[in-house]
């Protein structure tokens, strides 16, 4: 079924941040810092993207002693396709980069 709504600006920022290095596993706190989003916004976005098959998730396997493993995220093929579509749409509309998006 085709998408009926465009992703929010925050969701788009998350997708584009993950698309900058699509095969690299990222963790939520790192994305929160990069995008200047609070955890209360970030984790529901990540959960929705994963539920829709746009993100692959895994638990960190090599956590240092004394620290719990972190949940990791990276784009799936459909997630990369959506990020590419959003990048094209932004270029066509000549949109400026999202003001909250920092360079990694």
Coarse shape:
globular
CATH superfamily of one domain: Winged helix-like DNA-binding domain superfamily/Winged helix DNA-binding domain
| Estimated helix fraction | 40-55%
| Helix-strand pattern | HEHHEEH
Low-pLDDT segments, ≥5 res: 92-96, 98-104
- Beta percentage is 5-15%
Could you please describe the fold and organization of this structure?
The longest helix is centred in the C-terminal third of the chain and has 16 residues, at 77-92. The protein is 46% helix and 12% strand. The protein has 104 residues and is an alpha+beta fold. The chain contains four helices and three strands, in the order H-E-H-H-E-E-H. It is globular and about 45 Å long. The chain has a domain at 9-60 and 69-87: Winged helix-like DNA-binding domain superfamily/Winged helix DNA-binding domain (Arc Repressor Mutant, subunit A, Orthogonal Bundle). It has a three-stranded antiparallel beta sheet with strand order 1-3-2. It has helices at residues 9-19, 28-35, 39-51, 77-92, and strands at residues 26-27, 55-59, 71-75.
Short description:
46% of the residues lie in helices and 12% in strands. By secondary structure, it is of the alpha+beta class.
């Amino acid at each position: 079924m085709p998408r009926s709504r465009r992703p929010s600006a925050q969701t788009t920022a998350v997708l584009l941040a993950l698309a900058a290095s699509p095969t690299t596993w990222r963790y939520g706190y790192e994305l929160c810092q990069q995008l200047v989003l609070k955890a209360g916004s970030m984790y529901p976005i990540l959960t929705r993207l994963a539920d829709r098959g746009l993100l692959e998730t895994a638990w960190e396997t090599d956590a240092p002693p004394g620290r719990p493993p972190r949940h990791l995220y990276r784009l799936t093929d459909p997630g990369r396709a959506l990020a590419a579509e959003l990048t094209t749409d932004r270029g066509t509309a000549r949109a400026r980069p999202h003001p909250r998006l920092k360079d990694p």
